[in-house]
Amino acid sequence: xxxxxxxxxxFTIAAMSMIVSCSxxxxxxxxMHDGSEHSMEPIHVELSWNPGDxxxxxxxxxxxxxxxxxxxxxxxxxxxxxxxxxxxxxxxQELEGKLSGNGTYKAESILMKEGNYDVTSHVTARTQHSxxxxxxxxxx
Length: 140
Known about the structure:
This protein is mostly beta strands. The chain has a domain at 43-139: Macroglobulin (MG2) domain (Immunoglobulin-like). Helix content is 14%, strand content 51%. It has one helix at residues 4-23, and strands at 43-50, 54-55, 59-68, 71-72, 78-85, 88-96, 98-101, 104-110, 115-125, 128-130, 133-139. A hairpin with a 2-residue loop joins strand 7 and strand 8. The longest helix is centred in the N-terminal third of the chain and has 20 residues, at 4-23. The chain is elongated, with a radius of gyration of 26 Å.
């Protein structure tokens, strides 16, 4: 039978070996730090649409300009425009934004009913999420 001091010493050596071997990453980047090359400065999303005054059955281009500091963000993981009729929340659209360059993401739609809508751009970029909302009024 092993003496308690030797057993404790053996256990300590085994535990230290496991800790040291598990902490090495062989020069590879850890998944926890994949976004470390990006600043932690918040992303900024400027939401707009064109034309500014929208009528029923008129094509509307929704636009989100994404920046971080003074840099345009062209590598967003997801940009989604959510358009919800304020009088009927079941009347909603979700449009995927496509990069058109210089941090600008766009999507097109036609709104068939007059009324007030909440337009939210959901942007996921550089480990952050931003979702500004603006109200859009569709005229007859």
